[in-house]
Amino acid sequence: MAHIALTIAGSDSGGGAGIQADLKAMSALGVYGASVITAVTAQNTRAVTAVHGIPLDVVSAQIEAVLTDLDVGAIKIGMLANPEIIQAVADAIAGFDGPVVLDPVMIAKSGDALLAQDAVLTLRDILLPRATVLTPNLPEAACLLGATEAETPDQMIAQGLALCGLGAGSVLMKGGHGRGTVCHDLLVDASGLVAEFTAPRRETRNTHGTGCTLSSSIAAGLALGLDLTDAVAQAHEYLQGAIALADGLMIGQGHGPVHHFHRVWPA
Question: Does the domain spanning 4-136+209-248 belong to CATH 3.10.560.10?
Answer without folding.
Answer: no
